[in-house]
Amino acid sequence: MKKVLYLCCGIVGFSLLTGCGGKTLKCTRENDIPDEQMKMNQVLNISFKGDKASNLVFKMDVTFDNELIENNPTIVDDLSGTAGSEFDNIKNQRGISYSMSKKSDGFSSKLKINFDKVDNETKKKIYLINHQSSYSTVKSNLEKDGYSCR
After folding, report:
1. CA-to-CA distance for 35 and 47, rounded, in angstroms?
2. What residue ranges do the domains of the chain occupy?
3. Entry pTM
4. How remote is the C-alpha of 119 from its chain's centroid?
5. 115 has which bridge partners?
6. Residue 33 CA, distance from chain mean position
7. 8: alpha, beta or left, given left = phi > 0 and alpha = psi -120 to 50?
8. Block means of pLDDT (10 residues each) for the chain, length 150 residues?
9. How far apart are CA 22 and CA 8, in angstroms?
10. Which of 1, 53, 66, 70 is the most buried (most CB within 10 A)?
11. Tally of CB atoms within 10 A around 93
12. Pairing of strands 96-103, 52-64
């Protein structure tokens, strides 16, 4: 039992010394679009150093109704390509990684940004958030865009 207590104290102490106390904002937006026969879930996790964004992870999962896939068998390929092209101007830049995976009924994508490593020109092209904005401004703007944030 003492070993577990020492381990827990060590982890807490290490976290305090390394500054793991920064703010994190998690925002989600779920869209069920019956007219389009699809569902789209988006999650934004943003870490802040001080009051400026330092890291961002954006995940998007899109699922199509079976009827839509049956009537349009290329829908997954077509729309996953369109969604991926949104980030063409930034996805191969330093400090940014992007991945996409297709499944039979949709696709998932993930964009990761480390703002400390991204050059200033690329930062200007990132439309998801303004990395210079404060935590409260980013949260407010995302909530205006329909995200639920905590």
Report:
1. 35
2. 22-149
3. 0.79
4. 19
5. none
6. 21
7. alpha
8. 33 37 92 91 96 95 95 92 87 92 95 94 86 91 96
9. 20
10. 53
11. 19
12. unpaired
